[in-house]
Amino acid sequence: MAVTLHEDMDEVEKEPVRPKVTDSKGILQKNREFLDFFWDIAKPEREIRLKAIEGLIAYLKKIDKSDELKYALQRLVDGLAHGREAARCGYSVALAQLLSVFEDIGLQTILDQIKGKHNLQTVNKKQVRNVAFGNFFGVLALSQSTRLAKEPQVLLECVRLLQKISLYREHLQDLPRKTMVDLLSETPQEVFEEVLLGALQTDLTAALSSPEHLELLLVAMQKFPDVLKPKKLKKLLGSTSVINSENIPKLVQVLKMAAQSMKKERLLPAVAGDLLQLSLREGSFQLFWSEAVINGLLKDQTGPSHYLCFRLLGSALPHLSTEQLQNVLTGEVMKQYGEHVLSAQLPDRFKFTPEMDEYVSAFLQGCPDSDRQLAVVVGFSLLTNQGHPVIPTHWKVVEFLGPEALKSYVGWLKDMFLEPKMEVCLDFVTRRQKEKQESEAVNVERIFRLRKWIVPRLTSIVDNNQVKKDEDLVMDIARFIFCHAFFVIKKKSTDIPETENVPSVPLDEKSRAVVVNAFFGLLHHLNHLPVLGEPTKVETLNKKPVLGVKADGCMWLSSLVQYADLLLGKPKCLQCHLSFTPEQRKAWDGMIQSVEALQKKAKKSQSPEVSAFQQLFLLVGMNLFKSPQESVELIHDIQSCVAKVQAKKARKKKASTEDDGEEPHWVEVLVEILLSLLSQPSRLIRSICKTVFSRVCPHVTQNAISAILDVLDPTKDSEESGVVVTDEKDEPRKEKGKEEATAKGEDQEEDGDESDSSDDDEEEDEAMEDEVDPNFRLELMKVLQGSGAVATEEDNSDDEELDDEAMMKLDSSIASLFAEQKKKIQAKKEEKERLRKEKTLVRDFKIKVLDLVEIFLLRQSTSPLVLGMIEPLLAVIESGMSSETEQQEQDFLRKAADIFRNQLCRGKQYCKNVEDRQAELHDMLEKLLSRAQKLSDSSISLFYFSASLYLLKVLRGGVQAQTDSGDTSEEGKTAEIVEVGGMGNVDVERVTARYTDALVSFMTRRNSPLTGAMFMDLFSRFPTLCKNLLDTAVEYITGGAREHQQGQACAVVLKGLQSNEVQKMVAGDRWTGICQTTVDKVTETLGKGFEVKNKMILEKMTKALELSLFLVKTIHHQNLAVDLQPLRNTLQSLNKNEAFQKSGHMEDTYWGVMKMFGVQKPKLVKMKKAEEEVEKGPTTKAKKKGFLPETKKRKHSKKPVVLEEKIVGEKGKPAASPAPAGDGEQGKKKKRKRNKNRKRKHSEGAEAPAQSPAKKTKKKAAKQGAAKS
């Protein structure tokens, strides 16, 4: 029987005709709607389940039929033991809702039905788990129906059922006990006393034996205190209270069991939390904490017990008084927590710190008492390891401190910095630290470590914008850090609050260096600090968010400079750590005067230059305390710049012209100052330099740009650039990130770090020693030959042993020689490391200089100075591509490439006025194009090609190409004038010639760095050039050097033909001629043979078919006189060629083209059996096989492709063609082979695998069916 595959039919087999079923009354449809609810209730999606439950309730309310309600209850009870968890939950919720809505349904009836259906005694062992869950979810449904408290007898039976299924702990774990606790919490006191108390007598008596029983007792005591009085507890437990000295050992064991049970969940067990609450209610917290927690759980060496102690500590915080908090936070639990934090710094260790932070954050958010908040924060801050607190300096929980508590905490930090009370700290020392520490320097080192933590702790309060602080607090912190960073207090002063307390232990150089670095980091934060409080003047001046200023509009930096000037004016009270010389003091005073003058000008008229100079003065003035000599010179240079600006504004033409002839422009001097500042590794300097440069961008000259680009020039050394890159011993940027990790993990990982560093040193030493120095070898041979240890060529005597004296002399000579060689190797290593550091600093400096380039391109993208940046940036990118692949080098290259691509080439604003530089720009364009063709890397060539397109855009200017769409007959001088006018200042002939050479180079060279995407970009952006290059691109559809070039030629031509501007420019006969030529070329390239099959050929065919599709569409749409018959014949011949195999996209494109010719994609025909075999009929009775549903039938992925000629008949009907020759016979042969092999194996004695019982029963049933038939 032959079966054909149609559009709306699958495979059809002959079946007996069934009578048509009619549903005139809609009964089947209603039942189907009813049954679908139960299917949806069992689905895994929660939304679908809830929607189905609502629909079921509404349906049962609507019809009001007892039969369907009875069926629904039976179906829901049966589903409680479903194998899937989601289905069980769905059926349980549905049953609960049904019982709560239909209150006439008896709960006892449902409970009996649950017990009868899910009987644990008669069930099969394999179904025990599901049946146990069925009982549990049944009780859960009854409890959620909110009717259980009204029927005490049913409640009692539910409790007994839960007690019964609680024995199946391997399946249900502690779910039954938790449900019992929930039932107790919802049960009235009368029902509990009369009904449940007797049933729970056994469980309550065994309360101290397991966490579940104790949890039941604790919930009952909390819920029914009048029932479980001390007398009753005496009968149950033997004591009038749960927490007492007699029960402590049992409670500890119960808590250990609870900790082990919650090991995976990592949560506080409910029984532990209830015990804590009970101890607080009964007033036995001290006994519980000291005996059960510290002397019980904490003495256990297992991790879960310790983590339970930490969780009890965190959960107890909201319930303790201030005295209790101080007692708990200075105990053994906190010390153990500190050791855990220290050891958890190692990799692959569980870290409890995030969980503790959540406890502390929740306490601070919910506690309005500032004293208790301060007690908790101070308690954690006093937990120290050799003086260094274990909590991080950027502790996020400080965000939730109230204003009063925050001020008190800042005051406490300042007091601890001035008078370190090490005896107050809860300090601990690890075993390894005890072995290494020295008693003499322990206290001094601890004070240093504590101060090293306090200063970043203070700065982090300013840095964190989430902390609720005011300007007075921020200024207080800044003044404190500045005063102790650069001054030494001699005596008190009423004007300066910081002089009231003198440090009890003077700051050493190491501590002062930490404070200095922290202060400049604080300045960086203040420079980016948003306005605190309610701004008044700032809102009126600028609606944008202003950073680095106070509410009154004054800069934070300016306020600190005024404070510094105040301190300098009190030499009797304070002494500067680095005393100023008269010259430095004069420079400071001059800076103050200049800033005041600039502030007066700023009040009169807002000017970017004034604010830039003011900010730069303040920065260099603050830097005067750190590096006085360099800052003095910078202050003088800035003052000269300001003087020049003022002279220019006063229009002193003679003086300005004379100065311009002798001295450089003020912007050039300012740029040199910025470059010298950027050479210092400081985030503050980098951000201020960027701000200053952005404000003086409109005044930048060519010499200033050249100074910036000279730094980036890869052909020039750092010495030629005139900028010295400096390095600081303690960089705040590096130290800030490493500070906490080193403080916490240095003691635990010290040995590991030493071993790692020693291994690295050994590897370097081995590498250096492998490179044997020939001079060293000669010297060694001379020493050996001189002592007679090695015979020379002239000496033919045998080797003689040396005496002891000669051996000693030889040993000393060799030792001295090797010591000398070791010094040389060490010197080489140090030199190599020095060069590496210097190279890193230079690269970091260049990355900062790129910031200035990016700012200029953003602010002054229309300036002609931008054109001078093209070639230097390309040189930087090219040198970076060919250099080493270090991470810093990659960052530098990525930044330079991003600036060039996004800010320069793709910028929306560009220079449009270049009338006086046309020749120069054309020469540059030719140079860039020629360089792009000579490179070997396509990625670098792309940047050069993009730069040429940018120059084209600049030369074209803002003039858009104009085309005369009305008159298509004139193509003479008028059209040429219009095209040239559309390209602005571009020399079209010259540029066309250069891009034609580039296109020819790309199409004829086998390894050209140019790509097709470059010319596609050119064609899409410049239609005039596209029109001129289109004929050349068409020629290379068949004339390309390789298949890749030919395919790219198709893509480029397609991009050009799709342009509407190009179609308007070449409208008329020329457009028809281009289409005809392109069709001929595409026909020729499609007609080539396909003996070689590779990726390039397939790519070319795909591009050619895409171009063909566009051509055929356009020609048909515009009714062009183009002969398409050769193309159609070629495409039809391709389908007949067996070597032509179409991929998915290629096949769609191919049939898209053929559809334009009126040829539809053929429908596939599948032959199931040959007609001859159907007509013959079976000679013997075949065994009747079982019915296979449609969903189980195998879908063949490889279907035979039938050619077009064999599908379409004379009348357009599909003709049934026979299967390909050999296919059916081949399949039969394979089956015969398999049968023969099986028989051969059995005949040779191979043991056949044992058949499963299911297969045996199937075979037996098949035989019986065959016998009956």
TrEMBL record:
Q: Which Pfam families match?
A: DNA_pol_phi
Keyword Nucleus assigned to the entry: answer is: yes
- Would the keyword Nucleus be found if you checked this record's keyword annotation? yes
Q: Where in the cell is it found?
A: Nucleus
Q: What's the protein here called?
A: Myb-binding protein 1A
A GO molecular function assigned to this protein is: sequence-specific DNA binding
What's the chief localization of this chain? nucleus
Q: Which UniProt keywords apply?
A: Nucleus
UniProt feature, compositional bias: Basic and acidic residues = 726-746, 1201-1213
Q: Which domain of life is it from?
A: Eukaryota
Question: Which organism was this protein described from?
Answer: Denticeps clupeoides (denticle herring)
Comp. bias (Acidic residues): 747-773
Q: Which family does it belong to?
A: Belongs to the MYBBP1A family.
List the InterPro entries hit by this protein, alphabetically: ARM-type_fold, DNA_pol_V/MYBBP1A
Q: Where is the composition biased (Basic residues)?
A: 1181-1199, 1228-1242
**PANTHER family per record:** MYB-BINDING PROTEIN 1A (PTHR13213:SF2), MYB-BINDING PROTEIN 1A FAMILY MEMBER (PTHR13213)
